[in-house]
Write a sequence for this structure.
DNA sequence: TATGAATGAGAGTTCATTCAT
DNA sequence: AATGAATGAACTCTCATTCAT
């Protein structure tokens, strides 16, 4: 793994942001973390904003989430459900990554239109993928409601990650997962049956 | 409503933060918005941090959410469900407030332990209240799973608010509400039946 | 003479510029010379450029030159000539002021359009005034050639000031003044006679 | 003309200075203009100052002005006068060169003693040459006053070039030239007659 | 010779905080 | 109570200069 140039700076910037937030990320701090001089930063990036932009770009690109679940080959229902479940469990674990995502979302909400646009693209992609998986798993026809279910599913995961990051610890993870398990195995099946009959 | 002293400053600070974020909130800006001098600020608050603290404190206090739904008197199922539904719709509308909440969450995640603790208390309170409403509405016994459902419900709302703030516009609000409607009227009923039988 | 606020800063800036040039004029240097902190500068001026602008504006305003010679009342030929002569002698003396003027001209030539415009206005004013004085002194009709003579006269003075600032010391000031004396007393008379006869 | 090494750098530096001024001349910019790397510059020059010095040195060397007028062979009055006139017209045209000269003068005035010394030599040379031409053309004896007239003539040209660079446009070039024509053909003749009779 | 990444001092600017009035 | 001028540390960014390659 070559840690040269931009990579070194982006990695340092990501570390600093994770530790001190975007407000606390200074060029000097990033340079120090990267082990280079402040001036060196400007060989690779024309401004601090450009650095943050790349950090965000990288950060969002790495938000694979359910996108790693292949929908190419036909899989058994149990396999698909297990993969979704595992994918969500993984998100609950990745603290640093989730932290960065909330920073980015915060920035986007604050008015960074470019970032907002990227988030829009990402969410569309995630929701589309999740819908395809649902279609495969539950043998249903895609439509506005399947998309809405996907959106709610992602929303639930995001909200749960927020509670985890905030360390609310109100509910035990075991019970949290039981609900998730029910939803994937029976809840959605039940829902799509009812929808199908209408 | 007397707009003197601290109140005036906190209101100004909240406005500034909503518009420019915490990074963009300067003492000068807050003073200007409040219509006082920078020096005057320091008669009421010893530091900028103290102001932000109060803004956060107020902000969290005002996060009423489902807490406005009374559980004192016995209500019909339909009435309770409608009240929950309306309460969530309301959250989807309150842009400025949601924005501030995300700023606060962001700050808490960043390492503000006191704020984190307040969030913990808040979520516990919300989840407890939601659980009581569920117990009333679905005629079930409270337990870890009812709490988990409440936690997931809040998580879903938070995540959906995030998508709204990010203006992802992936799914139409009508369909979003259809899912919510199903969950409250049939989904949870179905779930608690299954849980009850186990 | 109240040396408060802007005045103090402008005076300091003028001093620094005279000593170190515009390149050598730093905010820190100006602040030190003015006896205030760097931050204080920004109470009065929003940028370094704004300071330089005011220095230039002041500098150009103070370039009274022949504009102090009143043309209101009728004066004897000898009086007028003597006043012009004295006015020019004065310019030869004012080292610091002339120095600043050349800095400003240099900046204008470099591409500062606003400054260029100011110079244009100033030169127009000076030339017009000098023409009026010539008309009074030599009893002639104003016209393009009288304006041209005025322009050449100013040009000569500017060029001579340049030689003085460069300390070329090629010619003794006494002889320089003898030529000036001839021009004012006989040269121009002779010229306007010839022009008049054409 | 070999454009290697120092020449290439000096040419680039002169171009940059003409376009952006001395303040705007950076090593990077010069290197780019010269088509070499920043490091390569330091093979030829030990510092930026050294480059600027050579630019100035070259710039002053190229200030030929009236020095191109040969005084070797006897010429007719009309020929000499025409040559002086043409030489001055040429100066009015050479914008870039004049621009550079003012930068140099500016630097010298700012305190560059070496440059000041060079200017002194140059002006002495120009004035001496002009005096010789005057002596030839007007059949007079050289003396302090002939030198003073030469100094004033140069001063006038310098001042007029300044007005041209500043784009004051107060007076039409045609009328400017009419005055010059009068001076060379009749003015100086008249002056030297009067001086001679005293 | 030649490159260009790297250095680091210093530039303009911001802003929480203080304090004489 | 209230003002706002003043402070100064810390920020982003620039650029002459160096040096391993």
């Amino acid at each position: 793994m070559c840690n040269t140039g931009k990579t070194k700076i982006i990695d340092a910037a990501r570390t600093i942001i994770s530790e001190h937030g975007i407000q606390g990320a200074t060029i000097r701090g990033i340079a120090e973390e990267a082990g280079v001089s402040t001036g060196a930063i400007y060989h690779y990036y024309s401004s601090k904003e450009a650095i943050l932009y790349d950090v965000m770009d990288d950060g969002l690109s790495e938000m694979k989430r359910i996108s790693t679940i292949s929908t190419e080959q036909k899989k058994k229902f149990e396999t698909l459900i297990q993969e979704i479940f595992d994918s969500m469990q993984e998100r609950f674990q990745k603290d640093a990554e989730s932290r960065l995502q909330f920073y980015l979302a915060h920035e986007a909400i604050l008015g960074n239109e470019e970032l907002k646009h990227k988030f829009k693209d990402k969410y569309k992609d995630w929701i589309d993928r999740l819908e395809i998986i649902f279609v495969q798993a539950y043998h249903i026809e895609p439509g506005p409601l399947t998309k809405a279910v996907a959106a709610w599913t992602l929303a639930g995961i995001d909200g749960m990650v927020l509670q985890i990051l905030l360390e609310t610890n109100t509910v035990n993870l075991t019970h949290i997962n039981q609900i998730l398990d029910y939803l994937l195995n029976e809840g959605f099946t039940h829902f799509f049956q009812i929808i199908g009959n209408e």
About this structure: Residues 113-138 of chain C form the longest helix (26 residues). DSSP finds nine helices and no strands in chain C.
